[in-house]
Amino acid sequence: MPPAGPPFSWPSSARIAVHRTGGLRFExxxxxxxxxxxxxxxEVARGDETLRWAVRNESAAAVSLDCVRFVTDAxxxxxxxxxxxxGYQSWSETRARLLGVDEDPSRHPRSFRFFRTIHHAxxxxxxxxxxxxxxVTAIDRGTAGLDGSSGRILVGFLGGxxxxxxxxxxxxxxxxxxxxxxxxxxxxxxxxxxxALHEVEVSEGDDVAGLLDRWAxxxxxxxxxxxxxxxxxxxxSWYHYFHDIDETALRANLARSGDWPxxxxxxxxxxxxxxxxxxxxxxxxxxxLGSIAGEIRRAGRVPGLWIAPFLAAPASRVxxxxxxxxxxxxxxxxxxxxxxxxxxxxAMWQLDTTHPETLSHLEAVARGLRERGYDYxxxxxxxxxxxxxxxxDASRTPAERVRAGYEAIRRGAxxxxxxxxxxxxxxxxxxxxxxxxxxxxxxPSWEVAPHDATWPGYEATAPSTRNxxxxxxxxxxxxxxxxxxxxxxxxxxxxxxxxxxxxxxxxSLAVGTSGGLALVSDDLGLLDRxxxxxxxxxxxxxxxADDGARHGDAPSCTDLLSPAGPTSLASAxxxxxxxxxxxxxxxxxxx
Length: 591
Known about the structure:
Elements: E1 15-20, E2 25-29, E3 34-37, E4 40-46, E5 50-57, E6 63-76, E7 82-85, E8 95-98, H1 113-119, E9 131-134, E10 136-140, E11 152-157, E12 164-172, E13 175-189, E14 194-204, H2 208-223, E15 233-236, H3 238-241, H4 247-256, E16 264-267, E17 272-274, E18 277-281, H5 289-298, E19 302-307, E20 311-312, H6 317-321, E21 337-341, E22 346-350, H7 356-371, E23 376-379, H8 398-413, E24 418-421, E25 435-437, H9 465-474, E26 484-486, H10 501-514, E27 518-520, H11 529-550, E28 556-557, E29 568-571, E30 574-577, E31 586-588
Parallel strand pairs: 15-16, 15-27, 16-19, 19-23, 23-24, 24-25, 25-26
Antiparallel strand pairs: 1-2, 1-6, 3-4, 4-5, 5-14, 6-13, 7-8, 7-10, 9-12, 10-11, 11-14, 12-13, 17-18, 20-22, 21-22, 28-29, 29-30, 30-31
Helix pairs in contact: 7-8, 9-10, 10-11
């Protein structure tokens, strides 16, 4: 683990802010060991590199808290200070931004609350000129050589299971103001209740990649990250067939897969009787799930299956027969909407992952899938329990609601199942999942397709291979530290795609150099010898990069703080360079 730089200096002007649900806000100077802020007390212990804190309800009544903040001056800034802004969940935009110049995507005048809730812990708009990063950030203040320091700071929460952590930054009169925010999302604290908040690390150093790797290792240790599963190679139905997958196409690809180097063979969205009814197939799949898994296993593959476990279609059997499992809207008695998806028929209802009966149901679903033969489970759209509403246990934070659902599925699936999280808040499930999608969906096009370009402020979260490229490079340092990275699927076909050969190769080499999961998502009948040769190259690179990450050589983006976007990824497999505006990739072998 690389050493940290000199300790960060905590100024005496630091202050504590508490935001009550409903709009009440209180602020007071930060005092150790405790600061009274309104009707709660915030305990503070500042070390050389860490902030340890807790919140305690001192009143005679329960209080609901949105967030607790520690606000501090972080020194002077020079020209062009830059901030690495890590996105909230799998698909959320991750990029470097210029402090004092760029705006948080929530500031877009046409951004709407639904997307803000999906892509930020706090769904409210950020303040003008305020940037925010979820879980961790690296900031270059632009003062290297001017004040005797490197000018570079890392801030990261050391845990995410109990609440989300957001870092906010802005330039105020030539100085950097930092806010460490524990987002509780309206969780209710009983009278006298004390909650420890996740520790925050602050460190300085010249080597941003080293600081991020050191933080990721510490986070993984705190949350007992699952990083021992083997490197994964496989096939997925989604990016060729999408919702139109049927049993005939699945079996045809299984028959063609004989000499392909797949371990996993994963059926994605499109097989289920309804969203929420995961154990039953629809009319496109005459066979039951157990029979399909048996065919996959007889072909020498591990059966994999996609589910969106926390959602239910209004007409689904689970919603109709078990309404007590549903969370409720903030007002009235209507079920809470957790997602709106036109291909599924519109609004989907949200299961209440704080309710014991819901958790028993999720556990039973996972157990049923394992009994039918599925050892690899992809859990999708799992940000949905973070949506504000009325839940059985009002004391749980959004992060705890997500984690409770994942833990129920882990209990049902067993410790030896491979669980891949997707559309998931990053910090909430470390230690429960084996892999995490780290970027937006790829697409058989490099840029965002016209029909997906309707997300004001959040265009970079829309499906596109270029968007996936950006996140794969920028989040590469998380691989084998918090989980196995899932960059998303390879697409190797030369027909029925808008990807040109250079774009296809750039994306494929990014997947390989990152060491992450390598799943092909094509009709195998369309793939020729060149496609197979490219996959073999990806897998060879991926195994080297993955093995390097296991032994301390973490993949890293060498221009992570460039506001123009990432162009380079280095790992034990080599250094990949490409301009995403017009990719003509080069790969230099490692020394």
